[in-house]
Amino acid sequence: MSREIFKNIPKVDRILEWPEIAPLLAKQSRPEVLKAVRHALDALRDRLRQGGSNQAFDRESLIASVLAELSQRVAPSLRAVINGTGVVVHTNLGRSPLADAAETAIMNVTTRYSNLEYNLENGQRGRRNSHVEALVCELTGAEAALAVNNNAAAVMLALSSLAANRQVVVSRGELVEIGGSFRIPDVMRQSGATLVEVGTTNRTHARDYQTAVCDATALFLKVHTSNFAVVGFTAETSIRELAALGQASGIPVMLDAGSGCLLDLSPYGICGEATIRQHLQDGADVVTFSGDKLLGGPQAGIIAGKRALLEPMKQHPLLRAFRMDKLSLAALEATLRLYRDQRQALKEIPTLRMLTTPAGELSQRADKIIRRLRRSLHPAVTLLKQRGESSAGGGSFPLLQLETTLIEVRIDALTPQQIESALRRTTTAVIGRIQRERFLLDVRTLLDQDLPQLAEALAEAAAAPATEQT
After folding, report:
1. What was the pLDDT predicted at 49?
2. What pLDDT is stored for residue 400 in this prediction?
3. What is the reported pLDDT for 179?
4. What is the average pLDDT score of the chain?
5. For residue 273, what pLDDT is reported?
6. What integer pLDDT is reported at residue 36 of this predicted model?
7. Of 159, 158, 157, 146, nearest to 324 (Cα)?
8. 227 partner at 20 to 30 Å CA-CA among 10, 47, 69, 77?
9. Strand pairing partners for 221?
10. Hey, how many other C-beta atoms are within 10 angstroms of the C-beta on 105?
11. What is the Cα Rg of the chain in Å?
12. Are 145 and 307 in contact (CB under 8 A)?
């Protein structure tokens, strides 16, 4: 290969003086710009080596390569995306978006000092759990409550405090594996408790628990089956039945409720999920649940129940490892406060609002979104209205399908798969779904604040060369 090809490539210092590159030094740090230039030059040399003498130095392509590399280097890895999948509590997309009140609460404690562990009444050291305990008790009827960083931690802390080196009786049909391959038996093993399986995969009766009781039994544990359901020839032991057996045997009953629900959603056609208050009224002594799923708050694990059982947890060494940070606590407190007024909660907590929006309202909203987007729509883009179904997600209501309205996106000369890839790679990524060879966006999970970025993303995807979509 001729060395003349490489001699024509300008040096780094010269590239930094180009009018297209020099202004970048005023906006970005010099080391970042240097790395972007060097990376682009390395890529160019590799292409020349592979292409031989038929290739040549192209200034415009090099500039584009530098800009693309710099953009990728300075862009945050964790960033906002537009959820058009129709899965309301989408684990891979950050689960539940927070209410405005939670965002305000976070900002209030982010850039200033706070009374995180300081008692303003007596001027002494305080407890961070005090900011949410009274609220949880008020909303659930529990005697005591504790918040940690997620529900797996809540289960681990409860089992470590109440059943270390002792036996915990669980139905075989409730030994679930949740996202990321975390399994209830593994969590139990790490807590120091010994698992005792009873019943069968599809049928477990109260007598199965009773038969397993011995001097080493510490807890009856019932586990929400998360995002799957066993249907057909089935039987399970209710909390009430377990509570009666527990009282007769002197054994506490613990429920891992999974996503957790604070409001009765049955008036909105969302049935099959009892509230945390109902679980406690039915006799559960301890209930653990997530704060970032159906509750609609930040990532958190909440433990609610009898004071005598929660006190050991508050003193357990694991609590420090599992404790919540001040930002999550602020968001959780603000979210819980909204639940004091059910109408306010349904209106202001995005997860609840999305789950309970009627199908007719979604259809009307789809019309408005399409009209708004068409004002600045790229000529190659076509939007069509379709009927479809949404799902709750987040390990709750696994069989629930909610009637919704979909927007089909068509872009000239692109397949649905290419549209999906293009929108996923735009400045603000748009995540939708492909169904029956159509790329679809579900109106239920499109937020109002997403619409300007959605319009930009559609234009960006339509303008990109087809070769970039694959």
Report:
1. 80
2. 83
3. 58
4. 91
5. 85
6. 93
7. 146
8. 77
9. 170, 254
10. 22
11. 28
12. no
Angle between helical axes of 100-110 and 326-338 (0-180°, round to 10): 150
Helix (H) or strand (E) holding 431: strand 430-431
Q: Taking Cα atoms as reference points, which of 293, 285, 272 lies closest to residue 242?
A: 285
Contact 430, 452 (CB under 8 A): no
Please provide the size of the chain in residues.
470
Instruction: Please state whether beta strands 177-178 and 402-411 pair in parallel, antiparallel, or not at all (unpaired).
Output: unpaired
Q: Which pLDDT belongs to residue 135?
A: 98
* Whether CATH 3.40.640.10 fits 100-348: yes
- Structural domain boundaries in the chain: 4-74, 82-92+354-468, 100-348
Is-contact 377 454, C-beta < 8 A? no
For 323, which DSSP code?
Answer: B
Looking at residue 33, the DSSP 8-state letter turns out to be H
Which helix or strand (DSSP H or E) is residue 171 part of? strand 167-171
- C-alpha span between 142 and 74 (Å, rounded): 47
Q: What integer pLDDT is reported at residue 228 of this predicted model?
A: 62
**Nearest-angstrom CA–CA distance, 261 and 60:** 56
Tokens of residue 163, six digits: 């059943």
Do the beta carbons of residue 249 and residue 167 sit within 8 Å? Answer: no
CA separation for the pair 423, 437 (Å, rounded): 16
Architecture of domain 82-92+354-468: Alpha-Beta Complex (3.90)
Tell me the three state secondary structure of residue 450.
helix
Q: What is the pLDDT of residues 12-52, one digit of tens each?
A: 999 999 999 999 999 999 999 999 999 999 988 888 887 65
The low-confidence residues of the chain, meaning pLDDT below 50, are 1, 467
Query: What helix, strand, coil percent values describe the chain, rounded to 5?
Result: 45, 20, 35
- Any residues with CB less than 8 A from the CB of 343 and at least 6 apart, and which? none
The DSSP symbol for 466 reads G
Distance (Å, rounded) from C-alpha 195 to C-alpha 168? 5
